[in-house]
Amino acid sequence: MTDRQQEFEQQLAELQLGYRARLPQRVAAIAQAWSRLRESPGAGSPAVDLRRLAHNLAGSGTAFGFPAVSKAARDLETAIGLWPDAGDGPVEEALAALHGIVAELAGQDAGSAAAAAGAVKPGPALDLALMADPGSEPCRELAAQLGHYGYRVDLVQDSAALEQRLAREPPAALIVDVSHGRGRSSGIELVAHLQESGVALPPVFYLSDREDARTRLAGVRAGGAGFFIKPVEAIDLAAALERLVPHESPEPGRVLIVDDDAVLAARHALLLEQAGMRTRVVDDPLRAPGELADFHPDLVLMELYMPECDGLELAAIIRQQEAYVGTSIVFLSSDADTSLHLRALRAGGDDCLVKPLPPERLVASVAARVQRARTLSAFMARDSLTGLYNHSRIEEQFLRELARAHRLGTPFAYAFIDLDHFKQVNDVYGHAAGDRVLMSLARLLVHRLRRSDLVGRYGGEEFIVVLPDTDWEQALSIIDELRESFAGIRHQIAGSEFRVTFSAGVAGFPTFSDAVALARAADQALYTAKRTGRNRVVRAPLPRPG
Asked: What is the distance between the alpha carbons of residues 501 and 513, in angstroms, rounded to a whole number?
């Protein structure tokens, strides 16, 4: 996830929490408007207020992730339209239903806060099904190793059990031992038979003792998404699973549309929204720089000809700001003049589309540019080996989260992690083995922590974890669980097997209120963990008064 995506996620989560917190007041306002209308049936103002309040709630609930609220408010709006001919009953029933939904949401908030506080992973683990012979100890060990990365693996022993598993709750992926059952390729034959029978299968990964082309070809023909030679290291399989079965859906692309033609801009926004993107429309080009800072778009779609500030001038303004050098700009114009298009590209544009534009061309062009912008942003922000935030970007994210905590008065924890005796790993097993250990820890941290948590490689074998809305005690428990899981991972190289541990220091806000003090406290706690035996998590000591 890029820094812009992360910030957008945080902003969206804050908006959703604020919306949810205000629901009781909004429903109370609707109830008051209804009371005023009953007291003065002939008055126009209470009726207008009631319809407006119900209509606004119906239009906003789904947008903030509460479709039940929208439906209840829409039912209420319909009932209001039938009043007074249908009497008070339909409005009273619809209002009671709306009250019930909001009360249920409030109860969920109270009941889930404590349960979620100490959870390492906020959602269920990603389910996998592994089909292997009952006595296959390597496959059982593989299942156990995948568990350290946050996967939950069900072992199935025959086709009947697999079909039941698929019918009950399809797993995210199916792992099949090629030598399962009778025959050297019976596992592939079983999957092929299921496909011919019309059984819907998730991505399939094969484990094989052989690497010959015929076996691989059979696996491909039987829908294989991956093929691994035994013995299989869990980190290799986890990497393949992450590519094909991501833990989370990608965040929709964000497009800022700048066009003084509000109707046309709304049409473009509708097309892009239907394609799964998020949009924001600006009809005044001079407001666009402010919207850039607020919306953080992946792409700006702008008209070339606009009053007061045309597209070329606005592009120059955008490109003068370092923060938006990588933001894609696509121009729209009804003028097919090639020289004008070249001027637009020289002004900093990435493309120039000629109107009228077929919907599929608009969507395809914007989607391709959004993906390219995100790829570039990720490349600049990520460590090339582990895929985590690099040193500079994790520091930026840390400071941003600290500022948010100051603003909202919420806690967060900062953990400094360092691999134990990592130099010995490189000296004994080689730097390639050391790189695999680093990737293994990175994958574990990403899989086991929440989407809102921030993870970066500080340098060498050092990592930083920032846990928003998490106090010290919760953070200590979370990092210690991760420490135990990582210590259980087996690393293999050239027939040798070894395990690696890590030590960590944890500090928290608001006990340490500024960035320097917080980072120094976590670093000192890490030093204590190293000095007192390693393979442990230590909480930073409280600061001395004065």
From this structure: 30
Tokens, residue 371: 């993906």
Per DSSP, the three-state class of 41 is: coil
pLDDT, tens digit (0-9, with 9 covering 90-100), for 243-302:
776 555 556 788 999 988 887 888 888 889 888 889 999 988 888 888 888 888 889 998
What number of other Cβ atoms are within 10 A of residue 92's Cβ? 13
Query: How far from 197 is each of 131, 191, 200, 420, CA to CA, in Å?
Result: 18, 10, 9, 52
| Residues 348 and 403 reside in one and the same domain | no
| Domain co-membership, 271 together with 362 | yes
What is the spatial distance between Cα 436 and Cα 495, in angstroms, rounded to a whole number? 15
Q: How far apart are CA 491 and CA 499, in angstroms?
A: 6
Q: Quick one: 8 and 137 in the same domain?
A: no
Residues of the chain with pLDDT > 90, as a percent, come to 22
Pairing label, strands 151-156, 278-282:
unpaired
Residue 111: pLDDT band by 50, 70, 90 thresholds? very low
**Class of residue 338 by CB neighbours under 10 A (exposed 0-12, middle 13-18, buried 19+):** exposed
For residues 436 and 419, give the distance between their C-alpha atoms in angstroms, rounded to a whole number. 13
Q: Are residues 344 and 454 in the same domain?
A: no
The model's pLDDT over 457-478, given as tens digits with 9 standing for 90+, comes to 998 999 999 999 888 888 999 9
Residue 12 pLDDT: 54
Shared-domain flag, residues 326 and 295? yes
Please calculate the CA angle 106-66-98 and round it to the nearest 5 degrees: 60
- Same domain? For 436 and 362 the reply is no
Mean pLDDT over each residue of the chain, to the nearest integer = 82
Total count of domains within the chain: 4
Last residue of a domain, one of 190, 212, 244: 244
Output the pLDDT for position 545.
Answer: 66
Is residue 546 included in any domain, yes or no?
A: no
The two tokens of residue 279 are 């949009």
> Is the peptide bond between 122 and the residue preceding it cis, with omega within 30 degrees of 0?
no
Q: Give the structural domain span for 169.
A: 126-244
The answer to whether residue 104 sits within a structural domain is yes
At 357, is the secondary structure helix, strand, or coil? coil
Q: Which pLDDT band, with edges at 50, 70 and 90, does 9 fall under? A: low
- For residue 384 the two structure tokens come to 């090339």
Confidence category of residue 521, pLDDT binned at 50, 70, 90: very high
Specify which residues 459 forms β-bridges with: 462
Residues 412 and 310 in one domain: no
Specify the pTM: 0.58
Residue from 253, 267, 270 nearest 303 by CA = 267
Rounded-to-integer distance, Cα 287 and Cα 283, Å: 8
